[in-house]
């Protein structure tokens, strides 16, 4: 009898905060994010210089949980999920526990996208979604082995999720995604004209300490 094993698995963690909790939290996070996006001159300049289609605090602010209580609340809510994910992927606690390394705001304008990238220097990365307009582009993860595949066979259009080279996720406001930081990912373009308002998300990295 033949036996199949799934080897070298990449695990995506998806959760959603309870709707009532998410609604209040998202209102506070959106207001705090928009206020910071108006005032953070260094972040505005960085976003412009790097052709970021909107605003990100990625390169300018590293103290959001101390700037606004909404980010501190989010940080506290994230930790149990990060610990659960660490257990799910069998991280060895002896190697360190996940500690928040960075957390930043992303505000993407209608039509905006974020090209494929990884998060070097960290172990677990993720995004929490604050506002997601209708027509928002998918969050796309790609198989990290693509560069080695050469003559690998094409997968069927309807291949099972663990066999797909690209996986598109459509998060909603209140969704939380976690993945290992080595996974390349991108945000596909928000449909101009269809995405009626900005897409606001909070991304973060955890390192082992
Ligand atoms: Fe990212």
Structure characteristics:
single chain; about 210 residues; alpha+beta; Jelly Rolls; six-stranded antiparallel beta sheet; four-stranded antiparallel beta sheet; 10 strands; about 25% helix; globular; binds fe (ii) ion
Explain this structure.
The chain is globular. It has one domain (13-208): Jelly Rolls. 26% of the residues lie in helices and 27% in strands. The termini are far apart. The strands form 2 sheets. It has a 6-stranded antiparallel beta sheet. Helix 1 (19-39) packs across helix 4 (69-88). The protein is built from 4 helices and 10 strands; from the N terminus they run βααβααββββββββ. It has 209 residues and is an alpha+beta fold. The structure holds fe (ii) ion. Residues 117, 119, 185, 203 line the site of fe (ii) ion.
How much of the sequence lies in strands comes to 25-35%
Going by CATH, the architecture would be: Sandwich
Which ligands appear in the coordinates? fe (ii) ion
Element-level helix/strand string: EHHEHHEEEEEEEE
What structural category characterises the helix and strand content?
Answer: alpha+beta
CATH superfamily: q2cbj1_9rhob like domain
In short:
By secondary structure, the chain is an alpha+beta fold. It has four helices and ten strands, in the order βααβααββββββββ. The chain has a single domain (13-208), classed as Sandwich (Jelly Rolls), CATH 2.60.120.
List the topology elements.
Blueprint: E1 13-16, H1 19-39, H2 41-49, E2 54-56, H3 64-67, H4 69-88, E3 98-108, E4 114-117, E5 124-131, E6 139-142, E7 166-169, E8 175-180, E9 185-187, E10 199-208
Antiparallel strand pairs: 1-8, 2-3, 3-10, 4-9, 5-8, 5-10, 6-7, 6-9
The protein binds fe (ii) ion.
